[in-house]
Specification:
Number of strands: 21
Strand content: 5-15%
Oligomer: single chain
Shape: globular
Structural class: alpha/beta
Strand order of the largest sheet: 11-10-9-3-2-1-13-12
CATH class of the largest domain: Alpha Beta
CATH topology of the largest domain: TIM Barrel
Bound molecules: beta-D-glucopyranose
CATH architecture of the largest domain: Alpha-Beta Barrel
Length: 591
């Protein structure tokens, strides 16, 4: 296998995206949080030049596509999800020309590009909202402006709460300084919700999609796909227990049936391209049945299955999550889309590093980010190694959040003064926010910024911890037992064994062990503290745990393994010699 340093752009040319129009059904998509990926111009913030320079690294992972968080001009109140112009690039991140060159290079490297569309809201600095604030009547109809309640209109028009905490309404101040109407924002006050009952909003977003599709973009992740349409009359929704609870039970602000009309329009547009473009929905909805509506025929292509990301590291909840995910998508002939972490939730190494909740209740992210118990990161990483083997063995597509291939943990001690996430303020400092999973990546070297920025640059926009020297890409390249090598092997195996297609059949396993058959191989995941015996006559061909010995017929504690009847059974899918250590089993060292 080539290390990423060995791959030059010349070698990548000609790999080109595979022709299959349904590539997205089984794709491995790597999420790039651009501001934290790699800083090319030396200002402490990740950018397009930094990303472009690391394309060979990305191609070396064995992924199919990149999902890039919003890169549009933005005041950056919410990390770019407050967009002020949907047809350009935020100057801190690059230029439109750089974006076009990047898309071309990524395609040449065999990687498709999925952007992030933010149709629920615009920045209050967007020209539409500025015009609305200045009193333009047509522009006001693009948003939700309402008079306040109470004799003097000083109470919000309804009881909706922002997902970041506090009321979902802010009262405007007129030019003469007097208070005016209220506008709706399901997130920060700087993110005004668009009024999707207005045909002009539909036209605008179809045009924005065309703008990027015409530049070769292969698809979009749809931000807050469940939020665009609100119940008629904006009725009260009743009390919410926490910021996340509107997503876990019916609420007039979320998951209204009208959203699907929008996605049918979008699907028709995407299908009019050759090759067709695709969508993946971010929809936090109360049930899997509700989620299935987003991916019904004629709607969006796929939707993140958040059940695994919400599941503790427990046999029963993990199995339920897999079962529910498969069931949901099968019912509408959509692929399952698995995900363990993203830029909104604590990294899974850390989630798995503490005692695990007894049930699969909706995780309390605030509590998870404000831990009361020390983290056992070795245990967390051990479980994370097993987790990627579980996910990569499932039918459907999977997303990898940048840095999980390095085993990065959540950074929980960012000083308050350096926090950037609006959640921190809006929650009245009761939730430290999402900065801890967005810390700039460590690439090389023994000292901060660990190769994230060129020499002489100011400190990265979020502080890195001192202890990441052993987790840099360079350090892990040199360690065959590293998380990075494990990811490459697992994704390589997945590609060769055509894991994304086909069915899964559960097998009876020992207590606490998920075991399932995937045709050419079986996946076993031991969530217990004790090693378990493998079935006689089976060979362990890939294993996440350190102590595995294929001849012992044992799967170590807190580890996953892929097993076959005989290595020859893998037919064309067996692993290259260079990946198979003496003894045959590809078992891994520690974190
Ligand atoms: C994104 C968040 C963002 C929010 C508002 C989410 O779903 O993933 O990062 O804060 O939408 O746009």
């Amino acid at each position: 296998m080539h290390s990423y340093q060995e791959l030059s752009t010349g070698q990548l040319e000609g790999r080109g995206p595979a022709a299959a129009a349904d590539w997205w059904r089984e794709a491995v998509v790597y999420q790039v949080y651009l501001r934290s990926f790699a800083d090319g111009n030396g200002d402490g913030v990740g950018d397009l030049p930094g990303l472009r320079a690391r394309l060979p690294y990305l191609a070396s992972l064995g992924i199919d596509a990149l999902w890039i968080n919003p890169w549009y001009p933005s005041p950056m109140v919410d990390g770019g999800y407050d967009v002020s112009d949907f047809r350009d690039i935020e100057p801190v991140l690059g230029t439109l020309e750089e974006a076009e060159a990047f898309i071309a290079d990524a395609h040449a490297a065999g990687l498709r590009i999925v952007l992030d569309i933010v149709p629920n809201h615009t920045s209050t600095e967007h020209p539409w909202f500025r015009a609305a604030r200045a009193g333009d009547r047509a522009a006001r109809e693009l948003f939700h402006f309402r008079p306040g309640r109470g004799p003097d209109g000083s109470e919000p028009p309804n009881d909706w709460q922002s997902a970041f905490g506090g009321p979902a309404w802010t009262r405007e101040t007129r030019e003469d300084g007097t208070p005016g109407e209220w506008y709706l924002h399901l997130y920060a006050p700087e993110q005004a919700d668009l009024n999707w009952t207005n045909p002009a909003v539909h036209e605008e977003f179809l045009d924005i999609l065309r703008f990027w599709f015409d530049r070769g973009v292969d698809g979009f992740r749809v931000d807050v796909a469940h939020g665009l349409v609100k119940a008629n009359g904006l009725p009260d929704g009743g009390p919410v227990e926490s910021a996340t609870s509107p997503h876990t039970r019916p609420h007039p602000a979320w998951d209204q049936p009208g959203v699907h009309d929008i996605y049918r329009e979008w699907r028709a547009l995407a299908d009019s391209y050759d090759p067709p473009r695709i969508f993946v929905a971010e929809a936090w909805v109360p049930t899997n049945e509700r989620l299935a509506r987003y991916v019904q025929p004629g709607g969006l292509h796929s939707a993140f299955q958040f059940d695994l990301l919400r599941s503790p590291w427990r046999y029963d909840t993990l199995r339920d999550a897999v079962e529910a995910g498969l069931h949901t998508s099968a019912a509408v002939s959509a692929p399952s889309t698995w995900v363990l972490s993203n830029h909104d939730v604590p990294r899974h190494v850390t989630r798995y590093a503490r005692s695990q909740p007894a049930t699969n209740v909706e995780p309390d992210w605030e509590r998870l980010r404000w831990p009361s118990e020390p983290a056992d990161l070795d245990l967390g990483r051990r479980r994370a190694r097993a987790a990627v083997m579980l996910v990569a063995a499932l039918p459907g597509g999977m997303y990898v959040y940048q840095g999980e291939e390095l085993g990065l943990e959540e950074i929980e001690d960012i000083p308050s003064a350096l926090r950037q996430d609006p959640t921190w303020w809006q929650m009245g400092h009761t939730d430290p926010g999402r900065d801890g999973c967005r810390v700039p990546l460590p690439w090389s070297g023994d000292r901060k910024p660990f190769g994230f920025s060129p020499a002489g640059a100011p400190a990265p926009w979020l502080p890195q911890p001192d202890g990441w020297a052993s987790l840099t890409v360079a350090a892990q390249e040199d360690d065959p037992g590293s998380m990075l090598h494990l990811y490459r092997r697992v994704l390589g195996f997945r590609r060769r064994a055509l894991v994304g297609a086909g069915d899964l059949r559960w097998l009876p396993g020992p207590d606490g062990v998920l075991a399932f058959d995937r045709g050419p191989f079986q996946c076993w995941v031991n969530t217990t503290e004790k090693p378990v015996d493998l079935p006689p006559g089976r060979h362990l061909v890939l294993c996440s745990g350190p102590e595995a010995d294929e001849t012992a017929g044992v799967l170590p504690a807190q580890a996953a393994g892929y097993i076959v009847t005989s290595p020859e059974d893998m037919g064309g899918t067996d692993l290259p010699d260079s990946e198979t250590p003496a003894g045959g089993a590809m078992c891994e060292a520690g974190a």
